[in-house]
Amino acid sequence: MDKIISNKEKSYLAVTLSGDNDKEVIKQMASALEEEGYVKDTFADAIVKRESIYPTGLPVGEINVAIPHTDPEHVNNAAVCLGILDKPVTFNVMGMEGETTEVSLLFMLSIKHKEDQMGMLQKLISLCQDQNTLKEILAKDQDKINEVMTALVEK
């Protein structure tokens, strides 16, 4: 895992990842958030457990995404971590039992207040509809990543 961007002022970071399955990449991202002080040491296990019960894979086109998150009790400070995978990893599809999708981008949420969750998810769903933007993110365009992440974290 390598950090591409870490913006403490705006509470986001972006990392590149490689792994063989969803649990591996989720744990790597959770570790990055923990290193930055955004989440507690319980976050990684909590997010893996939640993903197994409530999957977050979204088949939105050529580039698919996942939005793993968990309860605020595992969070120190709100943040968003973008994970750009070297190669796609299989995730279970949100709300579709038994369905899977190959995910290339992850947006891991560390949400401090439950009332903030729906607004953030709505912004992400809207973003995920734009395959051109997702392609720019996947290509590691730092200007585009900063632009997108800044828009996500703004209230």
Q: Can you tell me about this structure?
A:
- The protein is of the alpha/beta class and 155 residues long.
- It has one domain: Mannitol-specific EII, Chain A (3-Layer(aba) Sandwich), CATH 3.40.930.
- It is built from five helices and six strands; from the N terminus they run ββααββββααα.
- It has a six-stranded mixed beta sheet with strand order 1-2-5-6-4-3, with helices on both faces.
- Strand 5 and strand 6 form a beta hairpin.
- Helix 1 runs antiparallel to helix 2.
- The chain starts with a strand and ends with a helix.
- The mean pLDDT is 92.
Provide keyphrases for this structure.
PTrfase/Anion_transptr; 27% strand; PTS_SugarTrans_NitroReg; sugar transport; globular; Mannitol-specific EII, Chain A; 155 residues; transport; alpha/beta
Q: What spatial form do the alpha-carbon principal axes imply?
A: globular
Spatially, the strands of the biggest sheet line up as 1-2-5-6-4-3
What is the total tally of β strands?
Answer: 6
Helix content: 25-40%
Show unreliable segments. none
Query: What is the end-to-end distance?
Result: 29 Å
CATH class: Alpha Beta
Bin the strand percentage. 25-35%
Q: Mind telling me the C-alpha Rg?
A: 14 Å
| Major sheet size, sense and barrel closure | 6 strands, mixed
Q: Classify the fold: give the CATH topology.
A: Mannitol-specific EII, Chain A
- Assign the structural class, choosing from mainly alpha, mainly beta, alpha/beta, alpha+beta, or little secondary structure: alpha/beta
Name of the CATH architecture: 3-Layer(aba) Sandwich
Average pLDDT, rounded to a whole number, is 92
Tell me the series of helices and strands, N- to C-terminal: EEHHEEEEHHH
